[in-house]
């Protein structure tokens, strides 16, 4: 058994399984450790967080309870459970929602594809809620029909953004019995009570660790007019107030519908039981939603910790505004509006350039920076492909330096991901490597007195690593970016865009060779080549001429702007 301190002087215990079981029973070993370190404090000293028993992955994750990074320890590395709070489906999905789900998707991809963990993911869909009922009244649409229409739109938006769907997905309206059984158990445990109107409230005064996520104190004064014993008590079940409201009969009397917080607790527990490895959502959900979820489940399962790792994504703001983007404030940009100006890959790159915990200032400048960064990856892939096809002259390269650079890139990339999934630093590492390789193949002069050290294998290895890294982040394959958005709607009319553009460029290359063959350049042929290149560029195809041929990159925004003009 070992103890160690992190950067903020918090002490952690690393122990074998049998030691961990002893700790769980005693909660505290009042003795010096063999290493001479101070004995580990009780769980309360960690701000309510307990280090799980299992395999230390070498990854560190920010923990809001301790206000610092803690080790990621997995109970069962062969199956990692992950629950994400789903949307309340009463309106269109906006980019504030999208940023949360894209960032969560990025982290899940990192764990799956880079670290090779087997994630089992789940999400709820809140289709019974005050906001849905209000919108139903305003529009005259049936509440369930309205909710399912926006749910279908949400799913379509996530597909457009290349967000992988969860393995398990559950609607609240379809799982009312599960929620009621969960509430029944809390009543049996005397952690909840039935109010005079048959609403059910969670009694926070009987849960000692309430406030461990947000560091808040319980308000203990009575609020009789609200039917609650304590001000901090929250609704598990809301009694029906009006006849037209959606409601279900309850065993404790009357009819009603679930409160917001109990939905996630009951549905996540239905999937994963009394312990969840990861639970994700926006930072604005940490309190009261996640705080109440944790309290309910700890009380239900009589445990001190239900979720081992809470991941909260930073909120998205419009540039110049302090408040988050939200439907209630009317300051939203829908996913459809986003994709009219920018691609899904560009929005994902914007998320990658921001630490998942940080707030994002959404603006055209942010998106143009993401576009330029993504273009660097596309241009690098095109340049490297041209070099490998001998369209550029081979250069004298330093094999030892390339090997050292490749090793450094791989190590720094992995270290960045292990440091709380620092994707911004990962992108910087890849950009630095690409810049170094581009200088090697574009700027160095060939040595006529010495055969060049080709090092094609090392260059390809670096290129492969970068391409796979981007793919693991959810960016479309760099080699397929040219073709991805060019397929005609009619599947029977599809053409091979790569082959078509390659043929056009081959003819243009022959014209260029004829134009410069001889002592006098054929100005008319060169002008024709320029016109052909400009024509392709107006349709989004950026042509890059090399000594022995041409390569191209597709930039869809150029094509779109050309068509608007």
Automatic annotation (TrEMBL):
Needed cofactors: Zn(2+)
Keyword Ligase: yes
EC number(s) recorded for this UniProt protein: 6.1.1.16
GO terms under biological process: cysteinyl-tRNA aminoacylation
Entry coiled-coil feature ranges: none
GO cellular component, one term: cytoplasm
NCBIfam families: cysS
Function: In addition to its role as an aminoacyl-tRNA synthetase, has also cysteine persulfide synthase activity. Produces reactive persulfide species such as cysteine persulfide (CysSSH) from substrate cysteine and mediate direct incorporation of CysSSH into proteins during translations, resulting in protein persulfides and polysulfides. CysSSHs behave as potent antioxidants and cellular protectants.
Name of this chain's protein: cysteine--tRNA ligase
Organism: Drosophila virilis (Fruit fly)
